[in-house]
Amino acid sequence: MATDAETLRTRVIVLRDKVSNVSSNDFPHHYPGVNNSWDLEKFKNNLKIKINRMSKNEMEFDLIGIDTSVANAFRRILIAESLWLTSTFSLQQKLPTMAIEKVYIMNNTSIIQDEVLAHRLGLIPIYANPTSFDYKGPLRSPQLNGIIADESPTDLNTIVFKLKVKCERNPAASPDEQDPLKLFKNSNGTYYYAIVINFSLLYTGDLIWEPKGEQTERFKDDPIKPVFDDILIAKLRPGQVYKVVG
Fold it and tell me: What pLDDT score does 184 carry?
């Protein structure tokens, strides 16, 4: 496909099966007679942001007049400092967040390993204002010249969630019942080659916030909870159990 130099210099080309011409070439002496030296005022004048759609949880926008490498840098910054994708609370973050950091598993008879379950729980976005809590940092010993322990958890720096779920048979179901929605408590089912696979679906809505200290009174008008109740965490087969504190 023949393309003129001006298009190659100023456009990313979207084809049917790929996106081409994405490499940066706006540097001096790359094109004859074109001054591509960096100029802050020119950059500010050319940069435009057009918001197409915005809701409580999403925003769609067009970034216009900017090099793809700089746009990608903005994308990486948004991911690194996003309110929902950061897994720890740090004073250095511009967007401090709270998330499940430590997971204590008392019972797990599912096929999901403990460490995988803990990692999934740590990625769940939590609806909690981190500015309402103190930073929980390590305790240091000047004599030993190092960290000796983590600061003790209190209701001012820690939130606790509990998860206790078991997939079990519904005692009220008919003996010849075949529908897994009725046969098992809180269950769902999938039919595959005439085989009924019964399982309980474990969602973020099953996480129960357990207030500590004065948290019940402090957050009575805005209780702490997962941001979304319908994020699938795991599937349990009949008899399998989760008993977790995070």
Answer: 63
Amino acid identity of residue 42, one-letter, is: K
Host domain of residue 2 = 1-37
Residue 85 lies in a domain: no
Judged against a pLDDT cut of 50, whether residue 240 lies above it is answered with yes
Q: Mean pLDDT for the chain?
A: 75
Higher pLDDT among residues 6 and 164, named by residue = 164
> Are 109 and 21 members of one domain?
no
The token duo for 102 is: 């430590």
Query: Counting beta carbons within 10 angstroms of the beta carbon of residue 180, is it exposed (0 to 12), middle (13 to 18) or buried (19 or more)?
Result: buried
In a domain? residue 42: no
Q: What is the pLDDT of residue 198?
A: 42
Q: What is the mean pLDDT of residues 146-167?
A: 78
Question: 164 pairs with which residues across the strands?
Answer: 243
Pair of tokens at residue 2 = 């023949």
Give the SS3 label for residue 165: strand
Q: Specify the amino acid at residue 200.
A: S
Burial-class residue 62 by CB neighbours within 10 Å (0-12, 13-18, 19+).
Answer: exposed
Q: Which 3 state secondary structure label does DSSP give 69?
A: helix
118 and 223 within one domain? yes
Instruction: Tell me the two tokens of residue 154.
Output: 């209190």
The 10 Å Cβ neighbour count of residue 25 is 13
**In-domain check, residue 188:** yes
* pLDDT score, position 140: 61
Q: Which tokens is 235 given?
A: 């599937």
How far lies 20's CA from each of 8, 95, 165, in Å?
A: 10, 35, 50
